TrEMBL record:
Residues that coordinate or bind Cu cation: C76, C80, H163
Gene3D superfamilies: Glutaredoxin (3.40.30.10)
Name used for this protein in its record: Protein SCO1/2
Keywords: Copper, Disulfide bond, Metal-binding
InterPro entries associated with the record: SCO1/SenC (IPR003782), Thioredoxin-like_sf (IPR036249), Thioredoxin_domain (IPR013766)
Length: 200
């Protein structure tokens, strides 16, 4: 378990470093943000996954809305439910602007997270939340594209999943703008997302 944790931390710091090394041509549009500016990183440009609504989805399907993307799994004991509960709180904090926010939950455990299980899980936090899944190969490719680390961790006769706990935020044109750390509050998320929604 120590090795998996150190690898996860490595991926997080590599992600943060890549965000700081790229140019900041659009960073002037955001000020005093709580998250990591990822406006010019080559991360998470797109995906092709199946939604719990039975349709295939790409990022372009959500143009016109700010998009929150989080990777996790339904049997996660704390990080994933906390992330989705916070996303629901953020939507409430945004008031009417909350209708212009779409939360997407991508499972890293497609073997157990069937469409029915995934749909029931995400909509329990908010009916507008959408679960996304692929086969093992699609899941691995999507995780690589987003620089997300995940792996099975045996627990007796079953397993859990160790994974990156980062929320990605896209603007209304489908451009990745921010990485929000799991340690931030719902209020801090909302403050950053208000700026995203205010962009032309």
């Amino acid at each position: 378990m120590k090795r998996s944790m150190s690898r996860r931390h490595f991926f997080f710091f590599a992600l943060a470093a890549s965000a700081s090394l790229y140019g900041c041509s659009r960073s002037k549009e955001l000020s005093d943000i709580h998250g990591i500016d990822m406006a010019d990183t080559d991360i998470g440009r797109d995906f092709l996954l199946t939604g719990t609504d039975g349709r295939q989805h790409r990022l372009s399907d959500f143009k016109g809305k700010a998009v929150l993307i989080f990777f996790g799994f339904t049997q996660c004991p704390d990080v994933c439910p906390t992330a989705l509960f916070r996303a629901a709180e953020v939507k409430k904090l945004l008031g009417e602007d909350g209708e212009r926010l779409q939360t997407l939950f991508i499972t890293v455990d497609p073997e157990r997270d069937t469409p029915e299980v995934l749909d029931a899980y995400v909509t329990a936090f908010d009916p507008s939340f959408l679960g996304l899944y692929g086969d093992l190969e699609q899941t691995a490719k999507t995780a690589r594209d987003f620089k997300v680390f995940y792996q099975k961790v045996p627990t007796g006769s079953s397993y859990t999943m160790d994974h990156t706990a980062m929320t990605y935020v896209y603007d209304r044109d489908g451009r990745l703008r921010l990485g929000l750390r799991h340690s931030l509050t719902a209020q801090e998320y909302a403050e950053d997302i208000r700026q995203i929604l205010a962009l032309d």
